[in-house]
Amino acid sequence: MENHSFDVIVVGGGNAALVAALSAHESGAKVAVLEAATRQERGGNSRFAGAIFRCPHGGMEDLGPLLCESAQEVAKRCTVGPYTAEKFTEDMMNTSHGRADREQMQVVIDKGYETLVWMKEQGVQWQLTLNKFFDTKIQTGVIDLPPGGALMARHEGVGLTDDLWAAVEKTSITVFYDCPAHDLITAGSTVQGVKTRQTDFFIDFYGQVILACGGFEASPRLRRQFLGEGWDLVVVRGSRYNTGTMLEKAIAAGAQACGHWGGCHASPQDLRAPRVGDLSITDKMSRYSYPYSIMVNLEGKRFMDEGEDHFGLTYAKTGAAIGSQPQATAYQIFDQKTLHLLEPRYSTATPIQDDTLDGLALKLGINPTIFVNTVKQFNAAAPPTAVFNPFLKDGNSTGHKLDIPKSNWALPITDGPFVAYGVTCGITFTYGGIKTDTTGRVLSNEGSPMPGLWSAGEMTGGFFYHNYPGGAGLTKGAVFGRIAGQAAAQRAKSVSLL
Ligand SMILES: Cc1cc2nc3c(=O)[nH]c(=O)nc-3n(C[C@H](O)[C@H](O)[C@H](O)COP(=O)(O)OP(=O)(O)OC[C@H]3O[C@@H](n4cnc5c(N)ncnc54)[C@H](O)[C@@H]3O)c2cc1C
């Protein structure tokens, strides 16, 4: 049997893992990274991500200095207001129905911005989200970006992970690809290392262990078990490697399960999206302009409030709403008044169009009488003299005139040709995980730290429930990855002195 010994062993190859590895290395540790994927497929969900990072900041005054040189020109076309700690807290608490762990959240508030500065020092390049959400050939003039969703890594998740891997490769960190962690090596609650699985043998790695290997979103078995009926069949938006193996093994070793095990981040995806994430497409199958549409199911009926809030605060629960419709299918219906507002990502779709509502319904395979009636009822409930503002919650609401209201952006659907985009549910990541404290230490079922074990990223639970503010996942992973890296390096030093 082959054995290796390092100060710190990081399991995973996404944002949280690479930040943890760089941080442990900076703290003087001899570090190994164990990535289940091949070198070609490395990077986890982080590589598929739009790579928006949400953290409190003081507006352009704070974001400006973070931006890389090539992002400066675009910045001249944007304004960004402050995103305060209070607003971050409010968004986290509203989306989680008041359940988000306040201690963990405070760490992200306190350390979020400084972590992004540190990532820039490691080589991550930052830019604003203008071109991601707006077609700047159509949307001319200065655009006020949503403060919570204004910052992203250059070239999205691919750029983020390329920059992080490049930083890792400049160091003496040793990377093992195609090296899935299979189990923890333990003595009671103490973790001594990780057993990895090769084709016909195991390799044991000894050292302080940081688990940053994602949730269980890529396992149909665990999705069916924890999320329920139908979830085994949904589109997986990201990495096929996040199968929850080490989540189960950590829990079997005594780690405490916590958070929303029945919940996940899932969003509207094109009906033709691949069954599992494709690195040549990454996040380009997302269809997030639904606040300017009405969505109908195959029965021709609306099923959710499309205008409850900005998409960044609703998209993560909208996937589930679509997934619970017949054949997990819905259509986003636009008229000519709002088509110019579609995100650039819609260019990868094949819309279905017709001059009349009846004609559109027939092309969609929906009963025209029911569909036209749905649109008529909606139009009758839309406020007649509304001032439409796509960038602010404009209060144009159908109110209680409909069983299912549309709370903002309720413009009647009147100007043909009418255009439909077919969508289904795509899972992004799961919310349930293992419990950690504010220093990233994994806690046992009895609530004590398990010596030698840390965790970061989507493998940890307690942060997201029911829904999610866009961009919070990567920030959470980076903040706790950095903290865990420092702490594990520190323990490696103190253990070696014994
Ligand atoms: C299409 C898409 C778009 C997204 N957009 C955004 C966004 O704009 N902003 C945002 O904040 N979040 C976004 N997310 C969510 C975000 O990607 C995750 O929150 C984040 O990447 C999680 O990082 P992580 O390091 O915890 O996990 P991952 O990046 O998924 O990394 C997990 C790693 O663990 C490895 N692994 C798994 N099992 C094992 C094992 N047994 N042994 C060894 N290695 C293993 C995997 O190969 C992978 O490298 C998006 C996700 C997707 C899929």
Explain what the structure shows.
With 498 residues, this protein is α/β, with parallel strands linked by helices. The chain has 2 domains: 2-217 and 432-497, FAD/NAD(P)-binding domain; 266-426, Succinate dehydrogenase/fumarate reductase flavoprotein, catalytic domain (Flavocytochrome C3, Chain A, domain 1, Alpha-Beta Complex), CATH 3.90.700.10. 30% of the residues lie in helices and 20% in strands. It contains 14 helices and 20 strands. The radius of gyration is 23 Å and the shape is globular. The relative contact order is 0.20. The mean pLDDT is 97. Flavin-adenine dinucleotide is lined by residues 11-17, 34-37, 43-46, 48-52, 180-181, 212-214, 237-239, 241-242, 245-246, 283, 428-429, 457-458, 471-474, 477.
Features:
498 residues; alpha/beta; FAD/NAD(P)-binding domain; Flavocytochrome C3, Chain A, domain 1; 2 domains; six-stranded mixed β-sheet; 14 helices; binds flavin-adenine dinucleotide
Might you state the CATH topology name of the largest domain? FAD/NAD(P)-binding domain
What is the total number of structural domains?
2
Give the distance, in angstroms, between the N- and C-terminal Cα atoms.
Answer: 27 Å
Q: What is the highest CATH level, the class of the largest domain? A: Alpha Beta
Mean model confidence by pLDDT: 97
CATH level-two architecture of the largest domain: 3-Layer(bba) Sandwich
Number of helices: 14
Helical coverage, percent range: 25-40%
Shape, per Cα inertia axes: globular
Let me know the number of strands. Answer: 20
Pfam families: FAD_binding_2
Organism: Penicillium bovifimosum
Protein name: FAD/NAD(P)-binding domain-containing protein
Cofactor: FAD
